[in-house]
Amino acid sequence: MRRLRPRLVVLLFGFFLASVPLFAHHGNSAYDMSKTTSYKATITKFEYSNPHTQVYFDVTVDKGNVEHWVAETTNPGMLNRVGWSRDTLKPGDQVTLIANPNKVGARVVFLEKVVFSDGKELTTQKAF
Amino acid sequence: MRVWFAGSLVVLMATFSFSSSLLGQSNQPSATNRAPTSLSHDLSGVWMQYADGTEPGFARMNGVDDRVRPPLTPWGQAKFDAAKPLMGPRAVGGSEDSAALHCEPSGPPQLLILPNPFEIVQIPGRMFMFFEELHIWRTIWTDGRPLPKDPDPSWLGYSVGRWEGDTFVVETAGFNDKVWADLSGNPRSEQMHLTERYRRLNHDTLEQQIIIDDPKSYTKTWVSPPKLHKLEPTWEIAEWFCATSEEQTYDEQVRKPSGVAPNK
Questions:
Q1: Domain assignment of residue A8, yes or no
Q2: Is residue A4 part of a domain?
Q3: Are B157 and B151 in contact (CB under 8 A)?
Q4: Could you give the CA distance from residue B58 to residue B141 in angstroms, rounded to a whole number?
Q5: Percent helix, strand and coil across chain A, each rounded to 5?
Q6: pTM of the prediction?
Q7: Chain B: nearest CA to A103, how far in angstroms?
Q8: pLDDT above 90 coverage of chain B, percent
Q9: Chain B CA closest to residue A81
Q10: How many helices (H) and strands (E) does chain B have?
């Protein structure tokens, strides 16, 4: 009975940590994980595959210039478990992407969330 | 006649006691071979590590904890310096280099900390671990055999396991040095002897502890704190083969460009 108590403490502590919204990211050294940026995006390609799913998108900047970007996230195995599928995004979709910015300014970012035109949101965070 | 009979009886009794001790070595849970314990000897299920790591952006993969890593040997230091890690303070976006990025296999202990689930399946004499990332399965022999004395170097090593009360203890030797011990570039040599300790704390929680003895790489034993894993009864292990075509696309479109500042 005495031995159980320390284990119970460890268990409760573990559960407490799991329920606190930490950075639940697999993460990547190329991104500033402490910041997020929002992009008005037109999807050009959705590559739902290993090792990391890729969301290719265009952003229209000043004077109508179009920039080509890509946002990466985790693998389909984990994304499927938090509500994603290979049909989640299609070329032509107009969405808002919330992503961690690139440390050196490359047009490659780390996707946190998709906000659809109907207001629905789909996060990647719980997949990490 | 009586002497012969008595002698046969002795032989018969010896045979029975030898057989029952052999049966006792099997991993089949049974009333006869299980020491009094409060925790289950059934570790089967799909397990996912909790996101409770402390490195920013990497909330998992801390089952091998480099905050408590012992000093490196000269050989270990040279390997560490040459590695271009995937995480940690030395990681540079777009310049990472790890065996898995070239579709080479992973192996313990690195394999044990990857951020996708594993499934444990137990059969008489063996425990299997199926790792979702890279589609790797690993055998742990539980029939009482010892570790081989001079195993051929391999990606996964050769593993044997046994119960010590509540704890399932796995020992592995026979590694090659082609895989890091973790994702920070800490080395694994052919001399590594790996110990894992598993306890099923309750129905939904598996505790895993990773203990590294690698005198060619580290000056002391590397004991990481235990790491908790959650049972995911609705999850199926998904397919994940390292396909060169997919790795190449990701490399060219994402990984390498992510480290290159745009031309101004």
A1: no
A2: no
A3: yes
A4: 32
A5: 20, 35, 45
A6: 0.83
A7: 8
A8: 73
A9: B235
A10: 4, 10
B22, B28, B33, B36 alpha-carbon torsion, rounded to 10°: 160
HSE-CB at B18 with a 13 A cutoff on CA atoms is: 6
Residue labelled with tokens 């040095």: B177
B4, exposed or middle or buried, with CB in 10 Å at 0-12, 13-18, 19+?
Answer: exposed
Strands in B132-226 per DSSP E: 136-141, 158-164, 167-173, 193-202, 205-213, 222-223
pLDDT at residue B7, rounded to an integer: 53
pLDDT higher at B99 or B65: B65
β-strand pairing of B222-223 with B136-141 = unpaired
The CA distance from B210 to B225, in Å, is 8
CA dist., res. B239 & res. B116, Å (int): 11
CATH number at residue A56: 2.40.50
Q: What's at B131, amino acid-wise?
A: F
Distance (Å, rounded) from C-alpha B38 to C-alpha B36? 7
What number of other Cβ atoms are within 10 A of residue B127's Cβ? 22
Amino acid letter for position B66: D
Q: Which amino acid is at B172?
A: T
Q: How many domains does chain A contain in total?
A: 1
Chain A residues with a Cβ under 8 Å from any Cβ in chain B = 4, 7, 10-11, 14, 17-18, 22-31, 33-34, 47, 49-52, 54, 56, 70, 72, 74-78, 80-81, 102-108, 128
Structural contact between residues B201 and A7, judged by C-beta atoms closer than 8 angstroms: yes
Structural domain span for residue A27: 23-127
Chunked mean pLDDT (size 10), chain A, 128 residues: 51 44 53 94 97 97 94 96 97 98 96 96 87
Backbone dihedral angles phi then psi of residue B143, each to the nearest 5 degrees: -95, 15
pLDDT at A23: 38
